[in-house]
Structures are given as C-alpha cells and as structure tokens.
Amino acid sequence: MKTFLDITLVVTSVLLVLLVLLHRAKGGGLSSLFGGGVQSSAAGSTVVERNLDRLTVFTGMIWFIAIIGIGLEIKFA
C-alpha cells in the first residue's frame, strides 16, 4: 500500500505542476504555446479553461488524499 501511495504522490505532484503551468495568467502562460493564445471565440477558451480547472482540482484532491494516506500509514504503522 505504501508503494502505491508513494507512486500516486509522485505522479500527481508532477501532473499538478504541469497543469498549473498550463493555466492562463494575465500575460498568457504556457497554455498559449499549445494554441491557447489564439482565441477564435470567447466561448471556446472558457470551456478549455473550465475543463483545465476541473482537472487541476481533481488532481489536487487525489494528491491530498495520497498525502493523508501516507501520513496515516506513518502514524499507525
């Protein structure tokens, strides 16, 4: 179980870093490298940002659960 939680923590940590870098800041961000800078319509960019937000929150929750699981395993093992 510890190995599974450790692997989950590493994978979600790397994924969170990448997802946060993909978010669009005031000046653009790395999402503009992948076509986010060219906005054909306002609705299309908000859908992409909304989905990116959801994916980031979901990944953050998995990361948080892995942290809690590792902490509980350390405390009770």
From TrEMBL:
<keyword id="KW-0812">Transmembrane</keyword>
<dbReference type="Pfam" id="PF03840">
    <property type="entry name" value="SecG"/>
</dbReference>
<comment type="similarity">
    <text>Belongs to the SecG family.</text>
</comment>
<feature type="transmembrane region" description="Helical">
    <location>
        <begin position="55"/>
        <end position="74"/>
    </location>
</feature>
<protein>
    <recommendedName>
        <fullName>Protein-export membrane protein SecG</fullName>
    </recommendedName>
</protein>
<comment type="function">
    <text>Involved in protein export. Participates in an early event of protein translocation.</text>
</comment>
<keyword id="KW-0472">Membrane</keyword>
<keyword id="KW-1003">Cell membrane</keyword>
<keyword id="KW-1133">Transmembrane helix</keyword>
<keyword id="KW-0811">Translocation</keyword>
<keyword id="KW-0653">Protein transport</keyword>
<keyword id="KW-0813">Transport</keyword>
<dbReference type="InterPro" id="IPR004692">
    <property type="entry name" value="SecG"/>
</dbReference>
